[in-house]
Amino acid sequence: MAASSASADANKTYLKDRLIKQPLYLRGMWVADDLHFDEKGHLLTPAATTSFTLSGIEIRKLETKSDHLQLTGRRVGLELDGTSPKRVVLTLGTGILRKEEEMHVEIDHPASGDYSDALDAIFTSKLEDLAPALPSWWQDYAAKQILHVPYTAPFHFGEHPRDVGGDVTEPLVVKSVNPDFTPYAKSLQYKGTVQVEFTLGKNAKPVDFVVVKPLGLGLDEAAIEAIKAYVFGPATLHGKIVAARIAIETNFQIY
Within this chain, do residues 121 and 8 fall inside the same structural domain, yes or no? Predict the structure, then answer.
C-alpha cells in the first residue's frame, strides 16, 4: 500500500512538472474548450479546428482520478506583430464582463498508469511541431520564422503568375468585404495590419494565399476569408487576361 501511494505521488509530481503553467499548444489546434481523449491521446469528442494562433493552453490545475486525468486551464493565443510570437491569455467580453476562456481536458486512464504517450499526442511545447500541419498560407511564415529554413511557395497554374506593374495591369477591386474582427482581438484591444499575398487567376478568383505580414489571434485567417469574398477584375497583359501575383493589406482597428 505504501509503495502504491508513493508511486501515485511520484506520478502526480511528474504530471505537474510537465503540465502546470508550461507553454503548451494543442497539436490538433482544436477550437472546443472541453476535450475528451482516450488513453492514447485520440480525441473522443468531435471538435473543429482553429488557427494555430488560438491553439495555446496554460494548464492551471490537474486532478488524477481513478479512471482519468482531469486538466483545467485557460486558452492562450499568439500575437505575431513583432520579431517573435508572444503568448497571451485569451479573454472574451469587455469591461467588467471580460473573462479568461477556461478549458477542460479529460484523458482516460491508461492500463499502465503512464500518461506520457497520450500527453505527447495531445500537447507540444514547440511551435516547430505544429509547422508541418499548418495550412498552406502559413508555410512561408513557418519556414522563415519558426523553422528558419528557405521556402518557395508553390503555384497552381501552368504558367507562373505575373507580377503587377509595367505591361501587367493591376486588377481592379470591384467589391471589397470587411473582415470579421475576432472576439479575442476585440476583447484584448489588439489591432494592426495583416498583409496577404495571393494569385489572382485568369478567372479573377484569389488562390495560393501567403501571409506576408501576420498579426495573430486569428486575424490573419479573418483577412483571408474576407479576400476570398472580394470581387476582382482580372489582370491583363497587352489586353490578354493573365494570372497575377498581388497583395492586399487589411487594417484591423478598434473604434
Answer: yes
Sheet strands (E) in the chain? 24-26, 34-37, 56-64, 68-79, 86-89, 91-92, 99-100, 102-108, 123-124, 162-163, 173-175, 192-200, 206-213, 231-232, 235-237, 240-242, 244-252
Q: Which residue in this structure is represented by grid cell 476569408?
A: 225
**pLDDT-based confidence at residue 95 (cuts at 50, 70, 90):** confident
Please tell me the predicted confidence (pLDDT) of residue 45.
87
**Dihedral sign computed on CA atoms, order 153, 155, 160, 161:** negative
Q: Do 45 and 72 belong together in one domain?
A: yes
Q: Which residues pair with 34 in a beta bridge?
A: 104
Does residue 215 form part of some domain? yes
| Residue carrying C-alpha cell 472546443 | 32
- CA 78 to chain centroid, in Å, comes to 8
Query: Is residue 6 over pLDDT 80?
Result: no
Q: Are 71 and 20 spatial neighbours (Cβ–Cβ below 8 Å)?
A: no
Q: Which three cell numbers stand for residue 118?
A: 497520450
Task: Give per-residue pLDDT as tens, 30-77.
Answer: 999 999 999 999 999 888 999 999 999 999 999 999 999 999 999 999
Q: How far is CA 20 from CA 65, 112, 117, 155, 236, in A?
A: 17, 22, 17, 43, 57
Closest CA to 197 of 164, 234, 236: 164
Q: Which pLDDT score is estimated for 158?
A: 60
DSSP, collapsed to helix, strand or coil, labels residue 6 as helix
For residues 116 and 221, membership in a common domain is answered with no
At 10 the pLDDT is 78
pLDDT at 36: 98
